[in-house]
Design goal:
single chain; about 450 residues; alpha+beta; Elongation Factor Tu (Ef-tu), domain 3; 2 domains; 9-stranded antiparallel beta sheet
Length: about 450
């Protein structure tokens, strides 16, 4: 069998190529260039040139043919333009997910097949196994990698069965230290190379500076939202009352959660999911419009009135905002589209005893809303909605039919531990009700759900 390895110059893809060669496959390597603009990166040099050089050395060391392909036009059109479009709408995209579906396992795979490849291998930390549907058809399952710190199944959540059937993941059953050890043992030039960071194939960037290539910078207000706002918010009251009505006897409603460092914990197929705090029959009986309202983020309509006063010995006439019990204008920003929910860094706001986080953005009015502290009510939500056109079933045979509910483990960020949740499929959308409050739910990000260790579906929030 002829296998093309997507050789990036990093240690993971290098060891993937090494293992395949040792296993007797007819292996060749191909390096893809997807980005030209060095001005966009923080270091400002052509990192891809160094990566290509190392990749070529690795291929020579292993003893496999090496090819180069330029996919920068496809990458800009299918990944970067998507990023700009999503950020312009106030959504937070995940370019790595799109890069895998549109570039590595599509445009790149097409080039590899043209060179005679039967399969394409990458250095992803995940596993692939055959499975059988209820009607006896063979399909492929995508499983978590065994290294909880490196599992990358999340980034492959949009692959199709066709793409998965041609994919190989040689290092999915190894830990990162084991991969490093194999590279050192084989004296591979990439053995000590640091892991890449930042946007897939672009590198580490200052995101606002990167986005300003196409998105206009316009100054707007930063508004801090006080806790008192939630006592008068009809949306918050509706959310709290509705969730309370769904609770099982003896359970108390939690609207926020303690701040914890997010580190993945892998699950096993036999590990019980745990009981939902909500009565699942009541959840299934909720009207779709109620679920939709639960999934909507809270809107902030805080108006600020001005007043004039005289200041100093000369009684100079000045204008200031009147005190407001629900919030305060505490600064300015360069464009609401440059910020994402849950963001803490880059706000440039001081004078608070606790960290300040973005809790909402209003793109039409160019306002950023922030809240102080990890337990701020605006940071948390309990329900998300995925529109029908954004739902993707890695295992179509396990797709939920309208009117059905299912208990699954879900994550809404790459490093987040899997969260217990109830999926409810309706004609208008798929709704996910989490067992615990979720911090920093960002529209545009991907929610991914699992059966045990198997990733079975995903959707855009």
């Amino acid at each position: 069998m002829k296998v093309c390895v997507a050789l990036s110059g990093g240690v993971d893809s290098s060891v993937a190529a090494l293992l395949l060669k040792r296993q007797g496959y007819d292996v060749f390597a191909m390096f893809m260039q997807n980005w030209h603009d060095a001005d966009a990166t923080l270091h400002g040099d052509c990192e891809w040139e160094e990566d290509r050089f190392v990749a070529e050395l690795v291929a020579r060391k292993i003893g496999i043919p090496f090819y180069f392909v330029d996919l920068s036009k496809e990458y800009r059109r299918r990944v970067v333009d998507y990023m700009f479009d999503e950020y312009s709408k106030g959504r937070t995209p995940n370019p790595d997910v799109l890069c895998n579906r549109e570039i590595k396992f599509d445009a790149f795979m097409e080039k590899a097949v043209a060179l005679g490849a039967d399969m394409v291998a990458t250095g992803h930390y995940c596993r692939k196994e055959p499975a059988v549907t209820h009607d006896g058809k063979q399909v492929w399952s995508l499983l978590e990698g065994i290294d909880p710190n490196k599992d990358q199944s999340y980034f492959l959540c949009r692959l199709t069965q066709g793409q998965l059937s041609r994919a190989l993941f040689p290092i999915g059953g190894l830990s990162k230290p084991e991969v490093r050890a194999l590279a050192r043992e084989a004296d591979l030039p990439s053995a000590e190379k640091k892991d890449s960071q930042g946007i897939c194939f672009v590198g580490k960037v200052d995101l606002p500076t990167f986005l300003k290539q196409k998105l206009r910078s316009v100054e707007g207000n930063v508004v801090e939202v006080y806790d008192g706002y939630y006592s008068v918010s009809e949306e918050y009251r509706f959310m709290k009352d509705t969730l309370s009505s769904l609770l099982n006897p003896g359970r108390e409603l939690e609207m926020t959660a303690p701040a914890v460092r997010e580190e993945k914990v892998l699950t096993s197929d036999g590990e019980p999911l745990g009981e939902s705090p909500f009565n699942l029959e009541k959840v299934a009986a909720l009207p779709s419009d109620t679920l939709r309202k639960l999934s909507e983020p809270i809107t902030y309509n805080i108006e600020f009135e001005t007043e004039t006063y005289r200041s100093g010995k000369k009684h100079i006439k000045k204008t200031r905002y009147r005190p407001n019990p629900y919030g305060k204008i505490i600064g300015t920003h360069e464009g609401a589209q440059f910020y994402t929910i849950g963001q803490r860094k880059g706000l440039g706001i001081g004078g608070h005893s606790e960290s300040v986080f973005v809790i909402a953005t209003d793109i039409p009015r160019n306002i950023i809303y922030v809240g102080e502290g990890h337990s701020h009510k605006g940071l948390y939500g309990r329900c998300i909605r995925i529109n029908p056109e954004d739902i993707h079933w890695m295992r179509p045979d396990l797709a939920l039919e309208p009117g059905k509910t299912a208990r699954k483990r879900v994550r809404i960020r790459y490093r987040q531990p899997l969260q217990g949740a109830t999926l409810t499929m309706r004609d208008d959308a798929l709704y996910i009700l989490f067992d615990s409050p979720q911090r920093g739910i960002s529209p545009g990000q991907f929610a991914v759900w699992y059966n045990g260790a198997e990733l079975i579906g995903s959707g855009v929030i």
